[in-house]
Amino acid sequence: MSADSRIEAITRRIIERSKPTRDVYLERVRMQIGKGVHRSVLSCGNLAHGFAACSVGDKAALSGDQVANLGIITSYNDMLSAHQPFETYPALIRQAAAEAGGVAQVAGGVPAMCDGVTQGQPGMELSLFSRDVIAMAAGIGLSHNMFDAAVFLGVCDKIVPGLVIAALTFGHLPAVFIPAGPMTSGLPNDEKTRIRQLYAEGKIGRPELLEAESKSYHGPGTCTFYGTANSNQMLMEIMGFHLPGASFINPNTPLRDALTKEAAKRALAITALGNEFTPAGEMIDERSIVNGVVGLHATGGSTNHTLHLVAMARAAGIQLTWQDISDLSDIVPLLARVYPNGLADVNRFHAAGGMGFLIKQLLKAGYVHDDVRTVYGKGLAAYTIDPRLGEDGNVVREPAPEDSADPKVLAKAEAPFQPNGGLKMLKGNLGRAVIKISAVKPERHVIVAPAVVFHDQEDLQAAFKAGKLDRDFVAVLRFQGPKANGMPELHRLTTPLGVLQDRGYKVALLTDGRMSGASGKVPAAIHLTPEAVDEGPIARVKDGDMIRIDAVAGTVEVLVDPAEFDAREPVRPDLSANEFGLGREIFAPLRRIAGPADQGASVLY
């Protein structure tokens, strides 16, 4: 266990709370392990269908049970920059598998949508549910029971959480995650923000804005700001699903390809056919989940993971709560300043020492558990490295540096940027919400202002453009929860609210929707539950009600006489416009059964 007694105590309470569901999960995983992945038990017709398109040599290998078969689950498409590099990965993985004496097949593809493309558009209402659709799609690919292990190719916001849920559902199989890496650096983040605000204020036009955005998002790879996509990569490494040092190597480089081939060979090495069998369901435990949460706080990661980590943990029978996440945030210091929590991008983070330096600092201070299982076959200390390309073309790992190469981007544990992770749970007479304050100035940690109520983010945008919001206020944007409209991300609101804040007004956002890792400098109480469509208290808030969002005390309240507030009828607007267009019709069943935000907003659990 970790050297820090506070981390140990939270881990122990998660273990105790999870025991009934975790025990059932592990029993099922071990039962499936006992059955084995024996292709010889498939009928001849089953097996012939399974390897019909293979080479003669691979058919011979797959006819028995002595050669490992690696299933590839890929999120490749060539519209999205983060996933375009995966086009070449199956060939690399097949080559590596052959060199290791195994076989690899693409087991299935999963959808990969981009919140950056759908931001503020109707398609965003499909985004959160795509996580669970991805889990189901990956499950279909692996259901053929042809595979001894799986590799998962995914990067962005909902893709990696969905793939993790699938990997843990098929927890009897080893699972290795293979990233594509971030694009090279483009327009500096502070300049991008400046141009966005100029556009919001009407001082420049669309051509100038598009030019700036195109310079920011300009090539293959993940967007370089530290939102959910790059938080995913950090999580996969600190939780042991990546090989050490794999997360932030740029696409289409020799080191990136070497890491991909190494990951494929490692996946074959940890099957039940070898001596290092590492089934994902046993590898990931409560300590791994705590390490993930700690990494999230230490880097100022995405608020979306207050949903995703809860859902991912549940897939392994682990009961993680917002209170656990908030309590860990109070303990773990912020060690990284990456945009929007600073000016640097993830390439500068990696150059400053990256994951190896970060994990070394967290281990030294006792904030993470070293005694965990990983796909690398060693504890977390094996991840305190800096990856390099050796002369023979293979990966060489050198010890991570003792000092940060850029103390403005990566700090030591004894001299953090702030003493906590900046992610808190809020509780009060409006329900429960989360707030991320790592980029919010201390004087804005408590906001008391009158409510201005909206039911649509476009209405807020219109009010801003009409000059109706030049005052202190809390924007109450409701009917944005999972059951109402799929819980779209509301990142587009960051710019107008940021403009108003820069004009000197006290502003904040209160919503049952999402805001993501890009919430930035504006106080935002998000993921409020119960949501408005379930007649949560937010459905009874009126324009002019005083709202208090207190990130210091951890409260979110409407300052109205309780008897008067309780006597109000909840508002029930017409939400039919959310039910059709751009595929929203076919997601109606998911909206009906979606769980609350604090349970992961999932349709699976």
Automatic annotation (TrEMBL):
The protein's enzyme class: lyase
Keyword Iron-sulfur: yes
GO biological process: D-gluconate metabolic process; Entner-Doudoroff pathway through 6-phosphogluconate
Binding site for [4Fe-4S] cluster: 156, 223
Family annotation (InterPro entries): 6-phosphgluc_deHydtase, Dihydro-acid_dehy_C, DiOHA_6PGluconate_deHydtase_CS, ILV_EDD_C, ILV_EDD_N, IlvD/EDD_N
Listed EC numbers: 4.2.1.12
Protein name: Phosphogluconate dehydratase
Species this chain originates from: Ciceribacter naphthalenivorans
Lineage start: Bacteria, Pseudomonadati, Pseudomonadota, Alphaproteobacteria, Hyphomicrobiales
